[in-house]
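[recover] target loaded
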């Protein structure tokens, strides 16, 4: 069939989810039968080289699975078609399984809109040395797991928040409907490129979230906190009281004096949108907006 949008396609899903495996088998069979020129790559295989990367990544699952896929494949920047097998599915392109086949065929016939989503890059400095860098599509969280921590938040060189509480959250517009929403932060349309700074359980006078332009630099400075030694990081077994986390990818035990520098990443995640006002329809389903 001529005029196909993509030549290389891959599936990503969590193997323990039976519905995802069912849909992978069904859609792969349809692709092989109807679109014979498409190369179907190995499922869940993160490529090491551009030549083995998919142009279209079909993700079967909820928002957590889609977020995980976006993180793992960000280097190769495929277009992502999310087929929702979770709840509402803010990141999904198709919410209802009965529309999966029609949605996939629409994409292969170029009937879609690409919606670029901003990512953030975080660099952690300790005593003047860089000890970690990572990317986030949803949020970068700093939080004390069992107490309070003193934090100063700067936009460029200006201090905008002093927090004595559980922590602080820096989100993108994409992440505004995730942890940020649970922390009573604002909902922002996902194609708006910005930062959202939201405090977590401040023991001082609460301050509202701040929406910051994408070209600014945010610096989070870690102050004092009480060490309890109650928790260990799973990977390193290092004791952790105040933790940095970036989406589902990274966790780091923080120390007093650490600085987290957050900027807009040069990388974008490209989601496919098949129906107009999809985001607002998702809000209607989630919150019964009228």
């Amino acid at each position: 069939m001529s005029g196909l949008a993509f030549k290389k396609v891959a599936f990503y899903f969590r193997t323990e989810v039976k519905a995802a495996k069912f849909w992978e088998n069904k859609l792969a069979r349809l692709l092989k039968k109807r679109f014979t020129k498409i190369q179907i790559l190995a499922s869940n295989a993160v490529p090491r080289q551009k030549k083995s990367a998919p142009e279209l990544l079909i993700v079967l699952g909820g928002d957590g699975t889609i977020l995980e896929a976006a993180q793992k494949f960000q280097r190769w920047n495929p277009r992502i078609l999310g087929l929702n097998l979770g709840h509402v599915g803010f990141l999904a392109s198709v919410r209802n399984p009965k529309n999966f086949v029609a949605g996939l065929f629409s994409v292969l016939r170029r009937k879609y809109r690409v919606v670029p989503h901003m990512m953030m890059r975080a660099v952690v400095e300790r005593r003047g040395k860089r000890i970690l860098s990572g990317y986030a599509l949803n949020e970068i969280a700093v939080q004390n797991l069992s107490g309070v921590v003193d934090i100063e938040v700067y936009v460029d060189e200006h201090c905008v928040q002093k927090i004595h509480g559980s922590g602080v959250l820096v989100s993108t517009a994409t992440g505004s409907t995730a942890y940020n929403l649970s922390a009573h932060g604002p909902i922002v349309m996902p194609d708006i490129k910005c930062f959202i700074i939201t405090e977590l359980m401040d023991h001082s006078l609460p301050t509202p979230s701040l929406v910051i332009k994408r070209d600014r630099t945010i610096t989070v400075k870690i102050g004092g906190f009480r060490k309890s030694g109650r928790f260990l990081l799973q990977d390193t077994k290092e004791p952790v009281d105040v933790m940095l986390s970036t989406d589902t990818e990274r966790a780091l035990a923080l120390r007093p004096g650490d600085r987290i520098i957050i900027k807009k990443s040069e990388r974008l995640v490209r989601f496919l949108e098949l129906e107009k006002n999809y985001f607002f329809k998702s809000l209607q389903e989630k919150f019964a907006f009228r």
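[recover] notes: The domain at 8-112+274-287 is CATH 3.40.50.10330 (Rossmann fold).
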